[in-house]
Amino acid sequence: MILSLLFILSQTHKIKIETPQGEISISVQGQEITSGSIKESIEERLEKLEELIPGVGEKMTRIRRRRILRLIEEIYGLVEVLPEEAEVSLEVNAEEEKEEEHVIYPMSQEAFNALLSQLEEEGFSDAKLEIVISAASTNYFTVEQVCRILDEFSMDEDKLSALKVLWPRVLDPENKFKILQKFVFSDSKERAREIME
């Protein structure tokens, strides 16, 4: 019986029900409810189930009828499990709350300035690309930041290599049109478009 109640009411957050006999923990969608509203919800489901049973003259197998009637009786029994005097309070799992709050931010301005300084100090494109690869392994970027990094490369070919590394870490892809302006030749712009598709 309890398993049926859990199935009917299961959603995302824990609900703690205090009763004179002890405490019942079930899952229900993230909202505060009362035991009375739980009963109303179950009774509404009962009415829908009763509508599924065909009327006189309509055909239905005995097995199916028995299953539906058994389910109705089971839910009526569950209504009795939740006493009127039960107090219900919402209890959000701390881990779920942390997951919901997880937000990705672009590289901080301070760290980004340090990255630009490193790129400026390097004279070779290969060394600059290694720095970009290292930065992209643990950071996210805005299109504006990507544009500033691309400015550190003089050749379109090197810019394309850097873009391949950076693009999967871009947080505002809707601004990608700004990146195309960093390429001189039309074929390079086309290849940049392909990378950003």
Q: What would you say this structure looks like, in words?
A:
The structure is a single chain. The protein is mostly helical and 197 residues long. It folds into two domains: 2-95, no CATH class; 109-196. It is 57% helix and 10% strand. The chain contains ten helices and three strands. It has helices at residues 2-9, 35-52, 62-81, 94-101, 109-121, 125-136, 143-150, 156-166, 177-180, 186-196; strands at 13-19, 22-28, 87-91. The chain has a three-stranded antiparallel beta sheet with strand order 2-1-3. A hairpin with a 2-residue loop joins strand 1 (13-19) and strand 2 (22-28). Helix 2 runs antiparallel to helix 3. Mean pLDDT is 76; it is low at 1-15 and 23-29.
What fraction strand? 5-15%
**Total number of domains:** 2
Structure class: mainly alpha
Shape: elongated
Summarize model confidence as the mean pLDDT: 76
Radius of gyration: 30 Å
Helix content estimate: 55-70%
Distance between the termini: 52 Å
Strands in their spatial order, largest beta sheet: 2-1-3
Outline the biggest β-sheet: 3 strands, antiparallel
